[in-house]
Amino acid sequence: MTETISVPLSESIQMYLVTIARLRVDGRPVPLSQLAETLSISPVSVNEMCRKLQEQGLVVYRPYKGASLTPEGEQRAYLVLRRHRLWEVFLVEKLGFEYAQAHDAACQLEHATPDLVTDRLDVFLEHPTVNPLGQPIPRDGGDLPARPLRPLAALSTGQRGHVVRCDVSGAAHAFLDEQGIRSGASLTVVATAEDSLLVWIDETHVSLARTLAEAVEVEMETERMS
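RE: above sequence
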């Protein structure tokens, strides 16, 4: 059974914690600019909230470096992420939802699902280990498996992945954002050449210089395993 944490958190705080958990790479702090962009919230508001979360013992905030989760913050984030990804599996596999629809619905259900319902859902689904995109589902009291990341430029034709981070700024960052290549976006490599890649994202083709694709880190999407 899931360990119950007595003090409930607001939906807003849950979203901050789970977003930090999703964005962090190799244990490094998540830049506040990246957190603000992902949540579509102003950097000033993100800064204020991270300071409050630090006072509550959920986040460690380092100016100019970013935010990391404390052990308690991590546990809280995993509880939310577990509920979210279990609902994604249920909605796609049992109700026939498209993934995008399932993800949107799970964003609402993750905040309103009691631990008992989460545990029963896990049993009903026969304890899935990943969601429909191949992203790991946290177990009871366990950590998420390590996230092996690869530069987008390393993917071969036909391989899929979702964007974790883009280590660029200025005009390059603006271009990627305009094309929908941002944290959390799913894409497929359609073709490769010596100096460029063609990817399929948001129902359109985007051509990227290989040097730019090297700066985009992605997590490979795998087939769901039972």
